[in-house]
Amino acid sequence: MMAADYLAWEALQLDRHEFLDGEVWAMAGAEDRHVTIALNVAMALKQHLRGTPCRTFMSDMKLHAESANSYFYPDVFVTCSDADRASPLLKREPTLVIEVLSPGTAAYDRGAKFAHYRQMPTLREIALIDPDARRVDVYRHGTDGLWVLHPFDPGQGMTLASVEGLHIPDDELYADID
């Protein structure tokens, strides 16, 4: 399928589908803890970024990774781009992407999807949240062009440098999780 065909087709679908260079993948529903963690992070980001040009989006907003000819639905992402603000249906210039890992998608999120995300020139950070281990791996794009891992163990929450050093403590990150 061509990208333009995907976009026209996806607009008519009841369920979401990601597009990876001609292939279409149905997005399965998520566990309540997955959705709750994503919501907790999105709320913290939205509050923190209020009054700035940055906007926080959740799983229903498409993100176009042009270099990979792909469209993804990240769990949470932030863009501070004027061009993205003018584009109501999809965004192209993220600053931060956050994925909450699921057993069925963790390998893909850490592998191929991560590889596509990090090709996006505006992206400064990628956070991968593991609900089972309550661990967060934050990858930051350094001035030397390298992506450097900043791990946060259980009890440490996470700190996001790309959004002015926002720290989300564990009790807020995992609020309402059984």
Main sheet characteristics:
6 strands, mixed
Task: Quote the beta fraction.
Answer: 25-35%
- As an assembly, this protein is single chain
Question: What Rg is obtained from the alpha carbons, in whole angstroms?
Answer: 16 Å
How is this structure best described in words?
The radius of gyration is 16 Å and the shape is globular. The protein has helices at residues 3-10, 32-49, 82-85, 106-110, 112-117, 170-173; strands spanning 17-20, 23-26, 55-58, 62-65, 70-72, 76-79, 90-91, 94-100, 125-130, 135-141, 147-152, 158-160, 166-168. It is of the alpha+beta class and 178 residues long. The strands form three sheets. Strands 3-6-8-9-10-11 form a six-stranded mixed sheet, with helices on one face. It has a five-stranded mixed sheet with strand order 2-1-5-4-7. Helices cover 25% and strands 32% of the residues.
Architecture blueprint of SSEs:
Layout: H1 3-10, E1 17-20, E2 23-26, H2 32-49, E3 55-58, E4 62-65, E5 70-72, E6 76-79, H3 82-85, E7 90-91, E8 94-100, H4 106-110, H5 112-117, E9 125-130, E10 135-141, E11 147-152, E12 158-160, E13 166-168, H6 170-173
Parallel strand pairs: 4-7, 8-9
Antiparallel strand pairs: 1-2, 1-5, 3-6, 4-5, 6-8, 9-10, 10-11, 12-13
Outline:
The protein is of the alpha+beta class and 178 residues long. It contains 6 helices and 13 strands. It has helices spanning 3-10, 32-49, 82-85, 106-110, 112-117, 170-173, and strands spanning 17-20, 23-26, 55-58, 62-65, 70-72, 76-79, 90-91, 94-100, 125-130, 135-141, 147-152, 158-160, 166-168.
